[in-house]
Amino acid sequence: MLRNKSWQAMLAVTAAVLFGMLVIGCGNGGSPTGGGMQSGGLEGTWYSEDEGGYMTLNDGSFEISISPNPMSANIVKALKGNYTTSGNQFTMMPALIHGDFINLIMEPMLESMLEDIGGDLDIDIGSLLGARLESKWYTESELKSAMRNLFGVLLYAAMGGDSFIGGMFEELTTPHVGTYVLNGDSLTITYDDDDEPSTFIRQQ
Fold first, then answer.
1. How many other CB atoms are found less than 10 A from the CB of residue 75?
2. Residue 38: its pLDDT value, please?
3. Amino acid 110: pLDDT
4. Three-state DSSP state, 47
5. Number of domains in the chain
């Protein structure tokens, strides 16, 4: 019988927390000053120091990347999808998750996960510790297939299989609606499911 998989909850929570930091934002309690809401000029790359993330908006599509280590120049692609605006309403609809992001959130739990499951299935843990997804964008079905191929059918099923990966994907790609204020090179978004605004500074 499989032991209690605390890593599974840790992985889901880690993914949700990182998503919240990137898309919803932890906020800085501040508010924009002067200028008021403008109707255009959203396109470009925006950086949030509080969340340590980059958001690129381009003709109705967006891409979010993160900097896991503030002391490093390494940037990890995370989420991709579409956004719409209506007046000052901003709706973000994630659709794709990058393999590098999954590798990032999976890495701290991988050893614990394999030790938890591997012994029960007589699997060589060492051979899987370096397992990584390809560095590309994944739909839900592609991610399920890639994870199944990466870990094998038995281990994938023991991890929770399609149900677990599907739940994590749904958590990360839930649409979010909020309001935005654009003041020159400062963009503030307050989502309906978060009390604190997130402020981004234009990079390019």
1. 13
2. 36
3. 67
4. strand
5. 1
